[in-house]
Amino acid sequence: MSKDTNTADWPSLWERIVPKVDQMMAAIGDKAPHVAKADGIYDDTRLDWWTTGFWPGILWILYDRTGDERYRNMAWSWDERLEQFMLQPNGFDHDVGFHFLPTAVIKYKITGDADARRRGLFAANFLAGRFNPAGSFIRAWNGDKLGWSIIDTAMNLSLLFWAAKESGDPRYAHIAKAHADTVLREFIRADGSVHHIVSFDPETGERIEALGGQGYGPDSAWSRGASWALYGMVNAYRHTGDIAYLRASERVANFFIANLPEDQVPHWDFRTDAELAGEPRDTSAGAIAASGLLELATSLPESEGRCYRSAAERIICGLDEIYGTWNLPNHEAILLHGTGHKPAGQNVDVSLIYGDYFFVEAAAKLTGWKQRVF
User: Fold this and answer.
1) Which of 218, 241, 324, 359 has the greatest CB tally within 10 Å of its CB?
2) What's the pLDDT tens digit per position in 277-305?
3) Overall number of domains in the chain
4) Is the pTM of this model over 0.90?
């Protein structure tokens, strides 16, 4: 596929994704994958790890697009497995949207399964319970950092917006909107770059400081954080109609696009002390941003959204042509060269299941898929 998006053959890309996912099914089975390193073999993580919803999410997209019962059958039990794990000592946190949106909620939307609906609402109750009204934020992680909140949570708000509409109870949406307003005020800078972590006093709600987290530093521009903000804010707009969220998504998108290298796939952080040429890429950030840019494009008049769709297409072409595993038949992932947590030296230059998920999601959108997970 050429990076000339005017001649891009999106059906051809989809036709390569389907057999690749078939190969993944045979290799991954019911594992909970997160990372595939140099050997190309996906690991098997705890069910409460934040990434475990993405593999079944891929399967549900494939089922919805193809009608092939194999994908449905392999995806079917995931929301039940997650619920059962939640009923024992566990580490679930602010990312329960990443667990239950691509499993229970999408399952309910596609099949109407009543238990899936119940599990989605169960997860929404859990997420709502992490809201701190003093600072209007959803608490991140567990442990003793009671006042920490992170940009990733912007993507999990869709669980609360869905629960409000599904249950008729507006409290879920009130919480989601309050957190989204905090993202606007405290996380997204004027230039469109984004903080990863903001620390608040959990008693008073007063902002204490921004922290670098998985970015290079407090004042850097972690690319995956920007992709979460870009996508999360346009989702908030889609659920509420609040134009402030749409404008915030545009601001982040403009920053993201302006800082992309020639192949259109971002480095792990857009702002480091080192020359970017020597820094690793993060294909997961590119895939997330591409899917978010497609949402942004459809949320704007065609004349305004065209540039964002074009940017999404260029990113997908770059990922496909340079970072795909199409010529590595024994590799279990779709994308190479993701970066998990560079400052901690964790999962650098690896394949990441969420990068694969958002690449598949974006490709599905480019071939006419209208269902939405987030």
Assistant:
1) 359
2) 689 999 999 999 999 999 999 999 999 99
3) 1
4) yes
